[in-house]
Give the backbone structure.
Amino acid sequence: MLRRRWSAVLLCALAAWCSGCRRHDTGSAGSGLRNVKIAQWGQGKYLIYLPVYLAQSQGFFEKHNIHADLLFSGNDDQVFATVARGDAQFGVGDPIFSAISTQRGLPGVEAASIVGRVALWGIGKKGAKQIHTPQDLAGLRIGTFPRPSTTYTLLADTLKQSHVNAQIVEVQIGSELALLESNKVDVVFLLEPDASLAESKGYSIVMSLPALWGKFAFTGLTTTRQYATDHAALTSDMEAALDDAVHFAHDNTPATVAAAQQLFPQIDPAVVNKAVARMIAEQTLPTSAAVDQDGWMHAVQVREQVGDLTGNSQFLECLWAAK
């Protein structure tokens, strides 16, 4: 099902590739900045993508002569398909889809790291048991983002490799807590700030996937290899701007929290503060935008195990830093 859906998406992207290349026009803003459009996972801003927003709000894109706009593009496969069509120059989502696309004939690359660990936390009702190992998931109904999301793939692989019998329930983005409250699932996995927001409402954080998985290429800045080659200076400048942003986040935590609170004014500032602290403490917010090779290969291994990538290939050609 997953492979058939991604193949259909890719065929559409390949059909639009040539015309898409014509839309890959970075142009110039009135100020002389280079305009880029970034396709982002989901339908709104998520705190785990804070390096991107800091690069915007703190002037790091402008420092590198870039003006960047966001285009919310849906699920992980749709993000890279948006880039492949030429509707955006870069994508922010699961970078493994650049490798999947490469395998199917449209080479893609990860140009920078944005989230360096699996930034998902399991949420249960107040007093729910803590989940420390995959075996603790036995018998539970687990709510995840729908396939082919990274969340679904990781949890399905975790259950398979650990020989754990549990039910995965695909949940539409935004409806996770409603299913938990109506007893249709036992645990749901959320990003930040939703995890800390749920905790503030009396739910319990019962599992940490950053702790379980360690280094992992969870979210990256992706583009096609053709675009990265044709716009090498711009691609490098995008990485440099994001690198400035992650260093700022770790070196200036109070200013980072203040910036995050401005990004999410509808959320209690104390919740945002806790969410940022969790991201830094659990190292989902990387200390460098350079792609970590171990984290990349960890992600590749998972996709090989579920059959989305063929074995016997290191896929290092999909790392822009390894060009």
The chain is about 45% helix and 20% strand. The two ends are 33 Å apart (CA to CA).
